[in-house]
Automatic annotation (TrEMBL):
Superkingdom of origin: Bacteria
One annotated GO molecular function: zinc ion binding
Keywords for the protein's UniProt record, in alphabetical order: Metal-binding, Zinc, Zinc-finger
Gene3D superfamilies in the record: DksA, coiled-coil domain (1.20.120.910)
Presence of keyword Metal-binding: yes
InterPro entries linked: DnaK_N, Znf_DskA_TraR, Znf_DskA_TraR_CS
Pfam families per UniProt: zf-dskA_traR
Zinc finger (dksA C4-type): 98-122
Name the record gives this protein: DnaK suppressor protein, putative
Source organism per UniProt: Fulvivirga imtechensis AK7
Domain Zinc finger DksA/TraR C4-type: 93-122
Start and end residues of each stretch annotated as Disordered: 37-65
Length: 128
């Protein structure tokens, strides 16, 4: 019996990936919430008269920190969107299939980057 190459992951395997993605999604949303709260706090402190001590920080450093937090929040939002898209692919049966080669993406890669749409070979071939 020749072992034919799998073209899809089984329901059980997809379930495992769905749990992994949901876990990462929960953590990512919690981190985004903290980032947004921190950003909002740093915006509020400018008008708060009791924050005289924090005014010791230069405005430039304050602005740079806000920009940094904004970038982190944007990256985190993109990560969340990618994870949510991966959940959609699980539901419609296209999860784990490389968008370039059409072959299955290795489980190791999916465990490391569960929202990926490309096999490592496809990713590397694009970089060269």
């Amino acid at each position: 019996m020749g072992k034919e190459e799998k073209t899809r992951y089984s329901e059980a395997e997809l379930q495992e990936f769905e749990e992994l993605i949901n876990e990462k999604l929960e953590k990512a949303k919690a981190e985004l919430k903290i980032l947004k709260e921190t950003l909002n706090k740093s915006n509020d402190e400018g008008t708060d008269s009791t924050s005289g001590n924090t005014k010791v920080l230069e405005d430039g450093a304050d602005t740079a920190e806000k920009e940094n937090l904004s970038q982190l929040a944007a990256r985190q939002q993109k990560f969340i969107n990618n994870l949510e898209s991966a959940l959609v692919r699980i539901k419609n049966g296209t999860y784990g299939v490389c968008s370039v080669t059409g072959k299955l993406i290795s489980k190791e890669r999916l465990r490391a980057v569960p929202h990926t749409t490309q096999s490592i070979e496809a990713k590397l071939s694009q970089q060269s």
